[in-house]
């Protein structure tokens, strides 16, 4: 049903490592984000400036990269992956703006720059984030060249990932748990919602744009996405303790200052590293059935756990 990446580019067009394609994919999604966002000269100007500031101020673009890597694994052309990659990054940016607000984590630095409510003001930050969320679904609705059922499935996947049973619900649990002690099981449930749900959606997006996947294939990539989503947040917690502000782009030690329930805070740094390694090993084992086609996802999984080392 869809042209594959290799059909479009030829069997010898791809460099050997996904690392060699990151810059191209990052430019691609940045260009798509720039095109999707309202032009800053359009009214209301300040709101549109703040929206662009929230989205185009850097970031590793891990979630869009997971979309494209999953697409490579399943032979889905990047043309069909741009919309979910952009939508997921817009949702991610929306969540960061809200997370940084005084009513939430009260952060003043994000990606090495002033947070949106510091650069503009609190009301503008709230409105900018509120506008980014529906923009994400507008982008998905405009996706062309795919069946309506696939488009609906994509919208449902990302809506569920960012709603009360996904990212937003996880943030609610996180705020309620400040100053409390959680079991490892409860903490990982929170992580699977707060951070893991959107990462899982990024991994699963390409599956919805690919015919012919078996139930076993879908179960395997689903399990990969869930494992690596939890590992991502545990690694973030470790970096909050061990990282330096100028390197991680946000205030180091913020979790401890807020009394956050985190894996290293509750169980120690070394057990956190071991759990990350366990999750990485499990995630990679789920990719075995896809062979070399899953090398891009395996590379990103290792990057997620090993970043900052």
List the topology elements.
Blueprint (H helix, E strand, L loop, with lengths): L4 H5 L12 H15 L8 H11 L6 H13 L3 H23 L8 E2 L2 E2 L1 H4 L2 H20 L6 H15 L4 H10 L7 H11 L1 H10 L9 H28 L2 H4 L5 H5 L4 H5 L1 H18 L8 H12 L3
Antiparallel strand pairs: 1-2
Give the structure's gist in a few sentences:
This protein has helices at 5-9, 22-36, 45-55, 62-74, 78-100, 116-119, 122-141, 148-162, 167-176, 184-194, 196-205, 215-242, 245-248, 254-258, 263-267, 269-286, 295-306; strands at residues 109-110, 113-114. The chain is an all-alpha fold.
What does this structure look like?
With 309 residues, the protein is mainly α. The chain has one domain: Orthogonal Bundle (Farnesyl Diphosphate Synthase). Helices cover 68% and strands 1% of the residues. The protein contains 17 helices and 2 strands. A two-stranded antiparallel sheet has the order 1-2. A hairpin with a 2-residue loop joins strand 1 and strand 2. Helix 16 runs antiparallel to helix 17. The radius of gyration is 19 Å and the shape is globular.
Largest sheet: 2 strands, antiparallel
Write the CATH architecture name.
Orthogonal Bundle
Number of helices, where a helix is a run of at least 4 consecutive DSSP H or I residues: 17
Q: What level of helicity do the residues show?
A: 55-70%
What's the end-to-end separation, in Å? Answer: 42 Å
Form type: globular
Strand tally: 2
Q: Strand order within the widest sheet?
A: 1-2
- Round the Cα radius of gyration to an integer and report it: 19 Å
